[in-house]
Structure formats: structure tokens, C-alpha cells
Design brief:
By secondary structure, the protein is mostly helical. The chain has helices at about 5-30, 50-55, 55-70, 80-85, 95-100, 115-120, 150-160, 165-200, 210-215, 220-225, 255-260, 265-275, 280-285, 285-290, 300-310, 320-330, 335-350, 370, 385-395, 400-410, 420-425, 435-445, 460-465, 465-470, 475-480, 490-495; strands at about 135, 140, 355-360, 360-365. The protein is about 50% helix and about 5% strand. A two-stranded antiparallel sheet has the order 1-2. A two-stranded antiparallel sheet has the order 3-4. It binds a DNA duplex through helix 12 and helix 17. It comes from Bubo bubo.
Length: about 500
Amino acid sequence: SRQPLGNKQLAFQQQLLQMQQLQQQHLLNLQRQGLVSLPPGQGTVPLQTLPQAVCPSDLQQLWKEVTAAQPVEDSIKQEGLDLTTNTSNSTSFSAAKVSPPISHHPLPNGQSTMHTPRRDSSSHEETPGSHPLYGHGECKWPGCETLCEDLGQFVKHLNTEHALDDRSTAQCRVQMQVVQQLEIQLAKESERLQAMMAHLHMRPSEPKPFSQPLNLVSSATLSKSTSDTFPDGLPHPPTSATAPITPLRQGPSVISSSTLHNMGPIRRRNSEKFCTPISSELAQNHEFYKNADVRPPFTYASLIRQAILETPDRQLTLNEIYNWFTRMFAYFRRNTATWKNAVRHNLSLHKCFVRVENVKGAVWTVDEHEYQKRRPPKMTGSPTLVKNMISGLGYGALNASYQAALAESSFPLLNSPTMINTSSASGMLHVGHDDVSSTVEQVNSNGTSWGCFPPRSHPVHVKEEPAEAEDDSRPVSLMATTNQNVTIPDDRDLEEELPVEDLS
DNA sequence: TCAAGGATAAACAGAA
DNA sequence: TTTCTGTTTATCCTTG
């Protein structure tokens, strides 16, 4: 709304040009396959000159031709792909520019992972005489759902209600962005999956790219996550109209498992429990959070801490913290009243945030000791805590302990001697609180500290309650003994909290 | 069931 | 007076 009118017009013109190009491309595709015969001249218009050569009325006609041709044109089902991939040569479609090359991983069921949600919306698409936007007797145009008795009525409805106008163009653009975002994340996650499988010595064709990643890390995780999934076993996007767009399986690296659950406090809590290394997470998915309206899976406290620690002098004014939030996360570019209040609330509430008066006014700093003390020590040796410790420390030397834990958790793929280095794993739990922190700092490759130390279960507690750790021999045995001797009472928990990121 | 942590909302006060 | 900043309280939810 703050955009100048000129910019809006320009943006709209650009959208229109995109639409024109897409339609023209689609027609060209049809023409190439001999399915549509364009009037002389139209089909020969060079793509680059199309925007100038085709006026809106022509496009309207083209649009009608396209929709009219679809019932007899099965290949129209590729339209979703055309819209998103074939436009890579379009100068205005950004997906191809910002996303890595998208690999089409075949699924066991023969489907390609490279498709749009719209194509999944209805099985009617598979039948001749169907339309991608028509299924179950209703219009599948986003937000429409108008009931149409038959395809003819639908086509009529499509041409009247969804003609090439401002509204349809805008809706199409929104859909483009949705697809674009999903594809970007899909590409990321696909690459990650390949790397994970390669790391785990799995045959790339073995796992199901869509259903396996979670299982790969934790089949038991699904005991929780399935409660948030649909009967088909696949997490579905939130249906709430107010919920921000959530990547399906293409979420950011570490939150990928937790993000799949849902939005809001649950996810945040889960992610916090996962002890996601926030700086690592942000480094890897900076662009994602920056552009996608996805709530970051971190607590306010951890985010504030991260914001402060990212600065050279490790202090920020409140307004600078605000700016960091809005700069780093698209999500925080809205709902300002809510999260700003929450930020202030957290700053005041947590003793780990110290207000300091200086020449700039009041700035906020982080008391690391207090931050890591936030939760009462609970080092009872529970597998959960061990897992959190492992997952919170990232890779490096701790990878061995992580792998050992994995090996212990009835994880057959990792029960390979080559995967386990118990020697380096031993003694990990003897690292003291500060030592852990320093280790983390060293391990972290991007030079910043981990932003997530969920106080409830952070490794910091190891030193603070040595007696408890000794009382409960589970973590000690976990690290100090061979995997044959280790028993993990709750391997469901263990698997559940193993971050995907650590495997990659 | 309970305690703890986190998110959210809101009221309030002081300063600019 | 308005806005920003900071504090405090209350409530709800999730988790262990």
C-alpha cells in the first residue's frame, strides 16, 4: 500500500507481461505438438517481442483458446510445469534465477517431485476431457471453488470469472510465488537428501524422497509428527487462511522436520527442543527466511540473542533488534505489534538480556551465563538431554557421539563400524559447561555462536549437575562404552530429536 | 497432574 | 499528545 502508484502500475505491467509470455509459451508448446493451430502471425511472434506484439484483447482471446483447447489436450497438464519451469527463459520470472538447478527426482510411484501442488489437487486431471483447474465438480481456481456441473460450464465459468484481468493476474502471480517458493525449497531439500543419503551410504534410489526424510532420521518421530500429518502420511500445508506459507517438505534445513508439523507455538517449541543451531540455520536458510513468510522456529529469546551476538560489539538498541528481525525474517515484517511486544517482553523478562546505558542510549546485551542458566539444570542423563546436547553442538567431533547414539538407537544403517568413532565420542559428556560453549564456538564453521541453547536441556547443564549425571549412568555409558553395551530406554525420544542437519 | 517454559496480550509508566 | 521504550502481570499452550 505504500508503493507509489507508478511502481504498482509498473509491477502490474510486469505481471501482465509475464502472463503474456506464459500464455504465448504455452501456445507455442501446443503448436509444436500440432495440437493448436494459431492464427497466422500469432504463433510466429518472437517471444521477446510478444509483450509489445500482443495486446490485452489478444491475450484474452489467447486465454480463451488455451482454455478451450485444454479439454482435448492432455498435454495441457504440463501447464503447471510450463508455468514454473519453462519460463526460466523469461526475464521476469525469478524462480529460475534464485533457485538452484532443480533436479527431478523420480519417486517410487513414478511421480516426479517436480510438480506443482495444483497438479496434485485432483485426480480428474488424469482423465481425458478434464481440466487442471476443474475437479470434483468445482473450479479449482484459488479461492473460487465455484460448483460447475460439467466441463463446459466450467470452461464458461473460467472464461467469465477468471478472464485475464487484474484480479486473475494477481491471483496467478500469487500462485506463481507459491509454486516458486515450494520449488526452491524442494530443490534445497532434494539436494540435502541426496547428500544425506550419500553420507549414510544409502542408494539414492532407495528412499522415497517424499516420505523418507523423516523416517530416515526418525521413524519414531512420526509417532509425534504423524499426529500432525494427514492420513496419506504427508504433511499438508496449513489450511488456515491466516497462516503464513509453510514449505511442505522443502523447509529450511534444520527445521525441516519440525517445520513439517505445523505453525505456531508447537513448531517453535519443537524446534527449540531440537536445539537448532540458530546461526547455522540462519546462515543456511537466510534467503528463505528473508523472503518466505515463514515463522522462524526459534524462541524470541534465541532470536534476540542471535541478533545481539551478530553485531561486532554485541549490543543492540531495541530498534536495532527490531530491524534485525524485519531484515532477517519476512515473517516479522508483519504482525509488528505482536512480535515487537514479545521482543520487549522477552528483553525485560529474561535476566540474560542486560540493558546497558551508553552514548547511544540504552542498548541490550546478552549475558551468556544467564542465558545458559535460563532453565534449571536437568542433566538427568536422559536420552533426550543427550540428544539435545548432541544436536545442539553440531558436527565436528561430536558427530561421532551422535553417530554412536544413532547406532544405539536401533538404526541399522548406521550400525556400521565405519560410521562410529567411539573413541572420539568418549568423554564428550565430561566436557564442562564452558567447555561445551567453547567447543561449540570452535565447531561452528561460520564463526558465530550457536543461537539456540534451549535452557531446559542444554548441554550447559552437564557440568552444573555432575552428581545427577553420575547418578544416572545412561549418558555416560552412551558415550564411554561401546555401542553393544549401551541401552537407550527411550530411543523414540532419541531419534525424535536428532536434527536432520547433523546428517547432512 | 503438575511444574516449567514460551507465546501472546494487555496495562501501565516514563521519556522523547 | 503521541510514540517509543521498558516493566509487569495474566492467560493459554506445550512439554516433560
